[in-house]
TrEMBL record:
Gene: rplD
Gene3D superfamilies hit by this protein: 3.40.1370.10
Role according to the record: Forms part of the polypeptide exit tunnel.
Native species: Nitritalea halalkaliphila LW7
Subunit structure of this chain's protein: Part of the 50S ribosomal subunit.
Protein name (record): Large ribosomal subunit protein uL4
């Protein structure tokens, strides 16, 4: 499969890059995508939630009323979960939501996401992206040249460039990552994936292992 290589300004260079069919043209596996995205989102959770149970509540341990003769249910502590201000029953505790996935499954999920992007014409290859200084205006001009200004874009570069990253940081729909940080969630979340020509070969090497 071949894809046209564009300049940073959006003009056609007249060259084409060959994409590996084993990575960009496979039959997508939806279940692999589901598991990889689920793991990614689970890893984003801090898991620092905490509610106090009855043994952690500050309060008197004195029996609040006599056992019998009141006409109501018996009660032994003001810290009971049945009373206002009491401890919570089986409240949330700090925990890690992450879980393990096999590497082959994660690779399959990323290949599937890339294949979906190619099928949807959501993959663009550019010759390279370089800015002399970090300016949001320059990044907007770059997106305008590709006709992607109003879309959620993911720019994948071979090596993260500080000026390119800082230029995109103020744009809510723009995201810049290096090849080593490519993941299924980011690929599917973007409307269009823009890849530098150098990052294509590097990504194919990573996913072919």
């Amino acid at each position: 499969m071949e894809l046209a290589v564009l300049k940073q300004s959006g003009e056609d260079t007249g060259r084409k890059v060959t994409l590996s069919d084993e990575i960009f043209a496979i039959e997508p596996n939806d279940h692999a995508i589901y598991l990889d995205v689920k793991q990614y989102l689970a890893n984003q959770r801090q898991g620092t939630h905490k509610a106090k149970e009855r043994n952690e509540i500050a309060g008197s341990t004195k029996k609040i009323k006599k056992q019998k003769g009141t006409g109501g249910a018996r009660a032994g502590s003001i810290k009971s979960p049945l009373f206002r201000g009491g401890g919570r029953i089986f409240g949330p505790r700090p925990r890690n939501y992450g879980f393990k996935l096999n590497r082959k499954l994660k690779v399959l999920a990323r290949k599937s996401a890339l294949s979906y992007k190619v099928q949807e014409n959501g993959l663009t290859v550019v010759e390279g992206v370089q800015f002399a200084a970090p300016k949001t205006k320059d990044y907007i001009q770059f997106l305008n040249g590709l006709s992607l200004a109003d879309k959620k874009t993911l720019l994948v570069v071979a090596d993260l460039d500080k000026n390119v990253f800082l230029s995109s940081r103020n744009l809510p729909k723009a995201r810049v990552i290096s090849v080593n940080d490519v993941n299924t969630y980011e690929l599917l979340h973007a409307d269009n994936v823009v890849m530098c020509e150098a990052s294509v070969g590097k990504l194919e090497t990573l996913l072919a292992k």
